[in-house]
Every structure is written in C-alpha cells, then in structure tokens.
Design goal:
The complex is a heterodimer. Chain A is of the alpha+beta class. Chain A has 19 helices and 12 strands. In chain A, the strands form 2 sheets. In chain A, strands 1, 2, 3, 4, 6, 11 and 12 form a 7-stranded antiparallel sheet that branches. In chain A, strands 9-8-7-5-10 form a 5-stranded antiparallel sheet. In chain A, a hairpin with a 3-residue loop joins strand 8 and strand 9 (245-247). Chain A is globular, with a radius of gyration of 29 Å. By secondary structure, chain B is α+β, with helices and mostly antiparallel strands. In chain B, the strands form 2 sheets. Chain B has a 7-stranded antiparallel sheet with strand order 11-10-9-8-7-12-13. A 6-stranded antiparallel sheet of chain B has the order 1-6-2-3-4-5, sandwiched between helices. In chain B, strand 12 (249-257) and strand 13 (261-268) form a beta hairpin. In chain B, helix 7 crosses helix 11. The longest helix of chain B has 13 residues, at 113-125. In chain B, 46% of the residues are buried. The chains are: A alpha+beta, B alpha+beta. The interface between A and B is medium-sized, with 27 and 40 residues.
Chain lengths: 509, 313
C-alpha cells in the first residue's frame, strides 16, 4: 500500500467518523448545527479549595434555592472520597462534605445548571421570611457608637424614606472623599463595609438582609460572589449593590445565598477558598424539555466535554479553537508559502489577540517587540552568554509590559491592561531570534518573517473568533477529526505554493 | 503577477512541497542527517574517504577554553571560524589578516579578541545550531580561492553548489558574493547565482534576486566569460559524497583553492530551489532521467552520464 494511499485512507476515515457523529447529533438527537433557536443554559460551578492538616474536615457551603425567573435544571457534586449530605438550616439549605483525616491540597466541585425562563421578568415580592434581630451597637466603643449615631442622624436629615435612607448611607460610604464619620467607622470597626452598613441599617430598625449572587454572563472563571444588600420598607424589598448603590434586580442576577452566614465554612483545614465559574451554552428548546431522557439514550452526550467541571469546560473552549488556528497556519504556509518566525508562534499570538482585541493587540505586539529589539541590540554589546541574554530580554519584556500597563492605566486606556495575555517567554525568544536575524540577514528578512507571523496571526485570530467556528468547535468537538483529516491531506500536498508562482514567474516568460 | 502552475509543472520546476515530500522525505533517511548537519563529523568522514576538505586547525568545545583563545590563535593570521552545526552560513567569521591585536574581516571590519570570544561563546551556546543544541566551534584554514574567481566576487569566497541526486550530479551553480550580500554567498541576501553547464563548466545564466543579470554588480565583469576549471574533478568530488553520506538528495558546496584545487566546504541535506532559476531549467526533468538509470554505477560512470546528458550544448 503506497504512502499516498494510506494518507488518503486515514484522512477519509477520520473525516467520515467526524461527519457521522455530527450527523447523529444533528439528525437523531436534534441538536441544531447552526446557532439558532436556542436557550441559554448556564452552568455555575463552585470550586472549594483548602489544605488538609491530617485532621477530620467538615466543609459546609450554602446552596442556592430556586428563584423567580431562573430554574435550576440539575446539580452535580464531584468530591472523591468525601461524604456528601445536604442539610436544612435556619437560613437555608447547605451542602456538607466530610472526611476523616485529610492531608494536602483538596478541591471540591459543586455545580448546577440553571436556565432563565422565557418571558418578561416580573419579580414577585419575597416574603419577610425570618425575624430580624435588632441591632444595639452596644459592642462598639463609646466614641464609635457616637460617631455612628451622628452619621445616621445626618443621613436621616437628607432622606425621605427607608429606601432613600439606605441609598444615602451607601452613597456616603462610597464617596470619593468620605466624611470624617465614615472614615472613623471604616478604620475602627474592624468589619467590612458590607457588615458596617447592614449593622447601621439594622440599628435604625430597618429590615435588611445580605445576599450573595452572581450575574449570569457568558464564560467567566475565578470569580467571587457579588455581595448585595436587600432592604425592606414594609412594602417592597429593594436591592443595593455596594459599589453602584440602588439597583433593580436583573433577570440575570442569580442569588446563591440569602442571609448572613458565610458562603463556606471549613473546619479542620486551612487556606479555604471558594471560586465560581460560569459557562454559557446554547441548547435547543426541545433539548431542555426532555434533557433527562436524552442523556439516557445518548451515551455520546454523557461522554462529552459538558461532563467536565465548568472551569475546565471554559479552558477547553479556548483549547478547542487552537486546531483551527493551526489549520490556518498549515494553509498559509503550505499553500501560501508565507514565512513565519517559529512555526506556531502565530497561533499563540492570535490567542493573545483574542484577549486583547485585535487592534490593541497588534499595536502592543509591535511596541513590545520593537522596544525589545532596541534593548536587545544594546545587550548584545555587553557580551553576555546566550541563556543569560534571553533571560535578560525576558525580564525587559516583563518590565515593558508592566510599564505599558501602568502608563495606559493612568491615561485611561483600558485595553492595554490586557497586555499580560501575551506569552512573554515566546516574546523574549521572538525578540532574540529577530535580533539575530537582523544581524545575520538584515532588516528585510526580519520584516518578511515578522510580517508573515503577524499576517498569519491575524488570519488565525479571525478564524478563531468567528462565532460559527467557536460554536461548532465546542458543541461538535468531533469536527476536530475533520480538521485533522484536512491537515493530514495538506501534509501530502506536493504542488506549488502561491509564493512560488511569483518566485518562478521569470522562468515561464 | 502569478505564473501558471501548469506551465511550471510542464517545465519540471521543483516546488518546496514536492521537494520536501518526494525528494528530501523519500530519499534522505533521517538517521544520516547528523553527519551532514555537523561539519566536524562531515570533515572526518570525508577525509577518511579521501575527499579533500579545508584543514581543521582548532576545535573549541567548552566556554572555559575561551580564556586560552589568545594562545590558540597564535600564529594564525587568517582563518575561518564556524559553528559545527550551523546552517545557512550563520555564525561564520572569516579573518583574512591580523594587525597587532586586531583581526581584520574580509570586508575590512576590525575585531578585537573579545569580539571573537563572543562569537565563539554564541556558537557554544547553540545560537546558530538547529533547535538551539549546544554546539562546537571549529577553526579552519582559510581557503585561498582560485584567482579566476577574483573578478566575480566581492569580499567573499565564491562557492560552487552541486545538487547530487542519487549520486548523479544533477545541476550546478556558482554563487558569487556581492556588496549587497555582505560578502556572503546566500542568494536570498543578494548574492548572484550563475548557472553552470554540466558538460563544460561554462556559465549559462546569472540571476540576482531572481532577475537576470549579465555583469557582476560590483566588479562589473561579464559572467558570460566565466568558465570553471577542473570541472570534471569538481563533479566527481561532489558525486562521491553520495557514497559517504547515503543521502539521495544532497547539496554539495565546493570551493576552488589556489593550491589544493577543489575542496568540499559543506554538505546540505535540504538544498534550496534557487539553483533552478540560475539554470533556467526545472530540476524535476533531470531527476526523472536519473530515476530511470540503473542504481549501481560507480562515481566515474555517473559523472560521465551527467556530463553527457545534462549539458546544454
């Protein structure tokens, strides 16, 4: 069997397998191939990390409850070796993990899938569900208590009702130049702003409760819950964001916890930490309706990326796009004949562009590499060994990056803050290689290869940010087999490159 | 703007993809690469096989040896410093004479001892080697090139590149350095490539940057008068590298020394495609002819075959 035939056979069978799975998912399971007629399903993942100290560990985490406008579809617990139970407490349901003798770093996962019910959101008024403790402030020192009273009187004089009172109080605490009273309270209270405000409100006999929740947006990792205050004026609960002041509850605000207890309590371990990640996925309406049934009949779906913890799913959203970037590189190099510095450097640059936006990324890339080249040319006269010189260039790159960030932050150009997404070791190597290229082959070659890299990076960027590509990459990862087949086929392409049609044109005349 | 790919194919022009798959990939077994990628190994093997090469004077393997560099260079007024695993002429330093403590490069630039130490240090760190592998620096005798080439070269040694396919010399060109190429013989840096007739060793066409030229841009001499001496000996030298390297697709770089005659300078397992432009001939046609030849001919027979079949007259 000739090699050419083998390649063809492998490519065809890969492509066939890929297309078959897509056909099965689209035709039989009813998952639409194009992104339309969809509902957003959010997977909210909580990741609790802590470090065991060879002692029994008990972890308790507040659990969200169904709420108006948002439905909880399913919940999922991943905690190998830990006992898991749900407990009902005064302030709501809590998840409890337990294990005897835990040592070393541990991670527990808990995730729920929620989906926003269609239609307009008309929040029903929640009932006043539990008795409000009245605050006495008696545990505060005398001076502090007096300051608090003065502040409350002052705020009272500036407000008309309960809600305007709460709004004014939060406003005072957020002022750029806070009043003396606020400064003293913040400095000496030993409690967070959040805590102090709710204490002060309770002291005024205003019903108040704490809420922790998060905004349902697409794809976020490593976020903390947003704390909010809810204030009751006898008729209506009103939500207050500690940063923005009065807010109306959005349809996409998901309340994870009501009440004053902490979100997690960990006994028997140290360094406990909770992080949330969010992941949006478009699913067809039918799929939502009989999701349970579907999972039973299709092992394909159960064995998919959706079964991973949410933060890993988000990582794969990016990773799954890399093959498409690689395909662009293969096309432009094998068919186009573009020269780049480093084979897959353009894909890494394109990944950085995805975080920085294209225009800002391009400018920053050229600035960093340009400055780096100037500094590298000086370093070369210092007669350093290669490894030390590249390390020095890397440190200079980091300094240029931080300098750009600080300068632009002061100037108010936010885009540049994302400069940190550039892979700096790759940048340092690029600078080193380009500078050698400059010395050895002249500036022209540097522009050819540097320009080639950027052109390929821009094409890869457009391919990888295409909404359709990212939709099919994540929802139909089996199409990677088709990409693989294409790349294998291109690997045996022995025809001319476009650049060669130009290069050899004098031979035809 | 674009050439018609079907016309190119008809002319038998070899493209990069086809070269990589059908010639390099199919003819060159990877296990033989280290031999050609390492000039030190090439030199030893070539010498053992009785092939003439420039004489090796000094090798430097460790950074610590750099302290004694001054002693090592005592009595060496002209030499060429090279990385053993470099490619494309990177890291090569040619010193043509010494004045006091200073070393004079071919283009007149003056270097101090520490400049040379830095170059060697870079070589040892693997700056010029494939994949950044730690390398060895070697110092060779400087080739005193044959005066016949003086007219056709600017500040550098012109070398003859012969493509040897399955042991048959298939195509040849002379690479002449120019002011633009900074004394280097790399065509993409602006050196002139002169296609050489396989039968006579006479020049055929000359190109710079892919465009035809008739005269050397710096020395103004007419290339059409050029004829390379010892032509059959050069082809025999090139063809004999096949037995030594076992590589079916090979570029052999040869220089003509005034006293020693043709010497092998370097071998290349991935020779470029520009030689076709300098010869105004597609390489595939010649390779196809060679493919139809019996496999077990000796060097003399192969050279005879190439000279009689690939000549243009």
């Amino acid at each position: 069997m000739s090699r050419r035939f083998q390649v063809l056979l492998i490519a065809l069978s890969l492509a066939f397998t890929g297309f078959f799975i897509v056909w099965y998912k689209v035709g039989v399971l009813g998952i639409p191939f194009l992104p339309h007629e969809k509902r957003s399903v959010y997977k909210i993942g909580a990741e609790i990390s802590f470090e065991g100290k060879n002692k029994p560990v008990l972890v308790s985490m507040a659990l969200p409850e169904p709420q108006e406008g948002i439905q909880i579809l399913s919940e999922d617990v991943a905690s190998s070796g830990f006992g898991y139970a749900e407990a009902q407490t005064e302030t709501g349901k809590r998840a409890e993990w337990s294990k005897r003798n835990v040592s070393g770093p541990q991670i527990l996962y808990y995730s729920i899938e929620v989906f926003m019910e269609p239609g307009d959101y008309k929040p029903k008024l929640p009932l006043v569900s539990y008795e409000q403790k009245t605050e006495t402030l008696s545990d505060l020192p005398d001076t502090l208590r007096d300051t608090a009273k003065i502040l409350l009187d002052d705020v009272r004089s500036r407000s008309a009702d309960t809600h305007s009172f709460a709004a004014q109080l939060i406003h005072d605490f957020n002022a750029k130049e806070p009043s003396q009273a606020v400064k003293i309270l913040l400095a000496q209270g030993g409690e967070s702003k959040f805590e102090i405000i709710s204490r002060l409100l309770r002291y005024r006999k205003i019903l108040v409760r704490k809420i922790h929740g998060l905004y349902l947006e697409s794809e976020r990792r490593n976020i903390a819950l947003t704390p909010m205050l809810e204030v009751y004026d006898g008729k209506k609960w009103q939500l207050y964001d500690l940063k923005k002041g009065k807010v109306t509850r959005d349809k996409n605000f998901f309340i994870w916890q009501h009440g004053g207890d902490s979100v997690i309590e960990v006994t028997g371990a140290t360094k406990s930490h909770i992080r949330f990640s969010l992941n949006e996925r478009q699913v067809p309406v039918e799929y939502l309706l009989d999701k349970q049934e579907l999972l039973k009949k299709a092992a394909v779906l159960d064995f998919s990326l959706f079964s991973l913890p949410v933060s890993e799913q988000n990582a794969y959203r990016h990773i799954l796009l890399v093959p498409f970037g690689a395909l662009v590189v293969v096309l432009l190099r094998i068919l186009g004949g573009l020269r780049t510095s480093g084979t897959f450097m353009p894909v890494l640059i394109a990944l950085a562009f995805m975080e920085t936006t294209l225009s800002a990324g391009l400018i920053m890339f050229i600035l960093i590499v340009g400055t780096g080249l100037v500094i590298r040319s000086y370093l070369s006269s210092l007669n350093l060994l290669l490894v030390a010189r590249i390390s020095a260039v890397m440190i200079v790159v980091i300094m240029i990056m931080s300098f750009m960030s600080i300068l632009s932050f002061k100037l108010g150009i936010k885009e540049v803050l994302t400069v940190t997404f550039f892979p700096m070791i790759i940048l340092a190597w690029t600078i080193e290689r380009m500078s050698i290229l400059w010395e050895e082959e002249g500036a022209k070659e540097v522009f050819i290869q540097g320009g080639g890299s950027l052109i390929v990076a821009i094409f890869a960027y457009f391919a990888m940010t295409d909404p359709f590509v990212s939709h099919i990459a994540f929802n139909f990862p089996e199409l990677l087999l088709v990409v693989l087949a294409l790349i294998i086929m291109l690997g045996r392409y022995s025809g001319y490159r476009i650049s060669e049609l130009i290069r050899f044109r004098s031979m035809v005349d | 703007m674009f050439a018609n790919p079907f016309k190119l194919k008809k002319l038998g022009i070899l493209g990069m993809n086809k070269r990589n798959i059908h010639y390099i990939g199919a003819q060159n077994d990877r296990k033989y690469y280290p031999l050609v990628d390492n000039k030190l190994k090439t030199k030893v093997v070539a010498q053992n096989a009785g092939i003439s090469v420039p004489k090796l004077l000094v090798t430097i393997e460790r950074q610590s040896q750099l302290r004694n560099l001054k002693d090592m260079l005592t009595g060496l007024d002209k030499f060429a410093l090279k990385p053993a695993q470099g490619s494309g002429g990177k890291g090569i330093l040619v010193i043509i004479k010494r004045e006091g403590d200073e070393f004079i490069k071919a283009n007149g630039q003056r270097l101090e001892l520490r400049d040379i130490q830095r170059d060697i240090s870079n070589i040892l760190s693997g700056l010029y080697s494939l994949g950044g592998k730690p390398d060895v620096a070697m110092i060779e005798t400087l080739v005193e090139f044959d005066p016949i080439f003086e007219r056709y070269s600017y500040e550098g040694v012109p070398d003859i590149r012969v493509i040897v396919y399955k042991g048959y010399p298939a195509m040849a060109m002379l690479r002449c350095s120019t002011k633009e190429s900074d004394g280097k013989a790399n065509l993409h840096q602006g050196a002139v490539g002169v296609g050489i007739d396989m039968e006579s060793g006479k020049s055929l066409f000359s190109v710079q940057h892919g465009m035809p030229v008739t005269h050397h841009p710096d020395t103004k001499y007419d290339f059409s008068e050029l004829e390379i001496p010892h032509w059959e000996k050069i082809l025999t030298l090139a063809a004999s590298c096949y037995e030594v390297t076992h590589l079916g697709y090979l570029g052999v770089d040869i220089v003509l020394d005034k006293n020693l005659g043709p010497l092998i300078l370097e071998l290349n397992a991935r020779p470029g495609l520009a030689i076709q432009i300098a010869n105004r001939t597609g390489a595939v046609k010649r390779y196809d002819v060679i493919d139809n030849q019996p496999a077990n001919l000796d060097v003399t027979q192969r050279v005879k075959f190439s000279m009689s079949h690939f000549g243009t007259s």
